[in-house]
Design brief:
alpha/beta; disordered N terminus; EC 2.4.1.-; membrane; glycoprotein; golgi apparatus; transmembrane helix
Length: 633
């Protein structure tokens, strides 16, 4: 006989079967226990499986107000407000309530007596400087101002004001979290400080030019969005640059606990995931007013290639409004993108006021990316021996991107084009044309200064001593060459050192290294920065197209270089650059802004008239800022 299965009622304990109320109470108890167990055990496990991304409780509204920064004073107020929030330790929710309650007073400059203050006295400042020396901060400007053929950039008072306030923000946030505690702060998904961060990381195999130019772009963005800019130790940039912010540190993640992002993908969301969430929030398909988000840290480059710079939607107002809500942004950069920050409407007005000459790169480099004392010692040694006493400094950077094979095929052609271009433009002596003079004419101010100089020189000559007449001064031109190969140095030596020019002037040549192959190491970065700064001290500069090494020297020196035309079939030897700003090489020239209807699909050049395509000889599909003309350049 088949055994009967017990009825469901027989499986339930007797005390539950007694009455309907008792059964209801039992169900409620069992449900409550299950809910507790789910919250304590199952849900945390699920969160861990979901790559730790659910641990940040954040809400994404359907729409966010786009807050433009209309002028420098507004930017400074935003930075000051972020500093105050950090000093007072407000959470984002408390910060939002505080800003709403006091918005009107802030606009009128009120509540000054209630504001927390950044206390960093002279004693603390002096101690920090002793621990973090930086001689280049005070000594480098003089090497640029001594140039006779180039009028250096004027100090930017507005930029200095912004930097002073940003330094306070950086110091407040790092001290709030605790020096050395940023890794733990990130890994625990904390947001107790109310600060936001931008990580300036570098993918493997990036040269120094790529590193520094991308970081300069990221830092500019961090200032505009009141983010604390930090740099992973693995980039090696903190080892060759000074600490830029007094009382603080930009070094983060010394043992690689959450960088690079490719090794810790569980901790970072991609930009695609963020944009998909924005699309859901904007679609109106959900019944609630807000959508729950797990976004704590976002990697800004677009998949699947992750091409070393922010994706197209990054440069839109709507996406920026959402990005402003995310505590950590990760830039895995190797491409300079600062020019396109000028195309973002919410930043354009303040950037135009801050940098009316569009020399943003030069001001960022000279303020933040300064050589450490070890690197500075090498620069000084090269300067004292080869550059200091020269009347005219001419820098040449030659890059053979395809290595030794390209060098052997084309170096004779390139060498001849360098010499022909230099002679034709009056940079080096020859029979084709006259020489460039200090402070060349054309501009009435320059002509006046040139005539004054000639008058002073005439008076000085009339008072010349017997020794001056017996040993007349010889004008010295120093040619500083950087290249992996020695071919140009040997060629120019043959042209000038062994065949002195008839003009009587002396031509000296120097090439510090010629390693034949490019490698990647801390020592390589130290030497590269040494040579880049030496190049930037030139009066005139020749660079190779599509080279960030030459572009970085151009940026430091605020120089308008000549591009050496290395194309075999080209009929020109060189082309003068159209700007002192270097090229954003992989830029998209049209906006992809699905929620900014006035921009979506439009050309960047139509919207921002001072952004142009890079020259055909350089990167024809890139874009760059056209810097304003400066007097006597």
């Amino acid at each position: 006989m088949k055994k009967r299965s017990p009825k469901i009622s027989e499986q339930v304990p007797d005390w539950v079967q007694g009455s309907r109320p008792l059964r209801l109470i039992a169900v409620i108890i069992v449900f409550s226990i299950g809910l507790v167990l789910f919250n304590w055990v199952v849900q945390p496990s699920a969160q861990f499986v979901r790559n730790v991304k659910t641990s940040y409780d954040h809400l994404v509204p359907r729409e966010l107000e786009v807050e433009s920064v209309p002028d420098v004073d507004s930017l400074i107020r935003k930075i000051q407000e972020a500093t105050r929030m950090a000093l007072e330790g407000m959470s984002p929710q408390e910060e939002e309530e505080e800003q709403e309650n006091n918005k009107e007073e802030d606009e009128q400059g009120g509540r000054q007596e209630d504001r927390a203050t950044d206390v960093f006295g002279e004693e603390a400042r002096e101690k920090w400087r002793q621990l973090n020396p930086c001689r280049s901060r005070s000594e480098l400007p003089g090497l640029y101002s001594r140039r006779k053929f180039v009028r250096d950039v004027e100090p930017n008072v507005q930029w200095q004001r912004v930097l002073q306030e940003y330094e306070k923000l950086h110091r407040a946030c790092i001290q709030k979290v605790g020096p050395g505690n940023l890794s733990e702060y990130f890994l625990t998904r904390s947001n107790t400080s109310g600060c936001k961060f931008a990580v300036g990381a570098i993918p493997p195999g990036a040269g120094l030019g790529n590193k520094v130019l991308s970081m300069a772009s990221e830092f500019m963005y961090a200032v505009l969005t009141q983010r604390v800019f930090v740099v992973p130790t693995a980039t090696e940039v903190p080892s060759i640059m000074c600490e830029p912010f007094e009382g603080s540190s930009w070094v983060v993640d010394p043992i690689g606990l959450f960088t690079p992002w490719q090794n810790h993908m569980k901790l970072w969301n991609t930009s695609q995931e963020l944009y998909e969430e924005i699309d859901r929030a904007r679609s109106g398909g959900e019944s609630d007013d807000v959508l729950e988000s797990w976004t704590y840290g976002v990697q800004t480059a677009d998949p699947p290639s992750y091409t070393c710079h922010p994706g197209n939607r990054f440069f839109c107002d709507t996406e920026q409004a959402y990005l402003s809500q995310i505590p950590w942004l990760y830039f895995d950069g190797c491409i300079y993108f600062l020019p396109k920050l000028f195309s973002i409407p919410m930043f354009r007005m303040v950037l135009e006021e801050l940098f009316p000459d569009r020399l943003a790169l030069t001001h960022v480099l000279r303020a933040v990316m300064l050589p450490s004392d070890e690197v500075w010692s090498r620069i000084q040694q090269a300067d004292h021996v080869f550059l200091k006493n020269a009347d005219h400094r001419f820098g040449i950077q030659v890059r053979y991107r395809e290595g030794r094979d390209q060098f052997w095929k084309h170096h004779n052609m390139v060498n001849k084009r360098v010499l022909e271009c230099a002679v034709r433009n009056g940079i080096l002596p020859g029979n084709m044309t006259g020489r460039i003079k200090p402070l060349p004419g054309g501009n009435p101010v320059c002509v006046k200064k040139q005539l004054q100089n000639e008058s002073l020189n005439s008076e000085a000559s009339s008072r010349a001593s017997y020794e001056d007449l017996a040993y007349p001064k010889v004008n010295v031109t120093t040619i500083f060459i950087t290249s992996l190969f020695q071919g140009l140095y040997d060629f120019m030596t043959e042209a000038f050192t062994r065949n002195p020019p008839a003009t009587g002037e002396a031509i000296g040549l120097i090439q510090l290294t010629h390693d034949n192959t490019q490698t990647f190491s801390l020592e390589e970065d130290v030497q590269a920065l040494t040579e880049i700064i030496c190049l930037s001290l030139s009066d005139h500069l020749f660079v190779t197209p599509f080279s960030t090494f030459g572009g970085l020297a151009q940026g430091y020196g605020a120089l308008t270089p000549w591009f050496i035309d290395i194309q075999k079939d080209s009929k020109s030897d060189c082309v003068r650059a159209q700007s002192m700003d270097t090229c954003y090489q992989l830029a998209a020239n049209t906006f992809t802004c699905p929620y900014d209807v006035d921009l979506d699909g439009r050309s960047v050049f139509d919207v921002v008239p001072y952004i142009k395509n890079c020259l055909d000889v350089d990167v024809p599909n890139g874009l760059q800022l056209i810097t304003a003309n400066r007097t006597c350049v």
